[in-house]
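Field guide to reading this record: the first block holds the primary sequence, the second block holds the structure written as discrete tokens, and the final block holds curator observations. Each block starts with its own label. This record concerns Large ribosomal subunit protein uL10, catalogued under organism Saccharopolyspora erythraea.

BLOCK 1 — SEQUENCE
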Amino acid sequence: MAKPDKVDAVTEIAERFNTSTAAVVTEYRGLSMAKLVQLRRALGEGTTYRVAKNTLVKRAAEQSGVEGLDELFVGPTAIAFIEGEPVDAAKALKEFAKDNKALVIKGGYMDGRPISVSEVESIADLDSREVTLGKLAGAMKAKMNQAAALFAAPATKAARLAAALQEKREGGESDAS
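BLOCK 2 — STRUCTURE
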């Protein structure tokens, strides 16, 4: 008979798997509670960092239909459940792991499939959504400015031509006199 607290834990983890856009599995062996708190703060509001027993996580993953992660659930396991954009959380995990060698990124789950450590790091290397939108807006503005200059060029050219003809006529009339 399963204990109610374990059933609740499995249900909670399964729900997190279902509601998260991504999950990153880590090993936290050797991290102090203070470091774990620091990591949770670095991850931000959209990410929940949950330490759990491997057997409970395996059951929750199975219950959620998450496959391909069983080999990651070895040793002290904690999972970062990411709701929203995974880039910022992946960056925070990568930076924290760089500064704290005790945190090891094992892999993750995103878009219905397992992802490797290198894929998590690739996600961390991407620009955030806001930065990408800013770059796109800048590129669009530059193209609009180019288009405006292109459309204004014939009118400017015609005005210069008219001014040159006017000067030529005025110069020609003064020579004829």
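BLOCK 3 — OBSERVATIONS
The CA atoms of residues 32 and 89 lie 20 Å apart.
Strands lie at 22-27, 47-52, 77-82, 104-110, 113-115.
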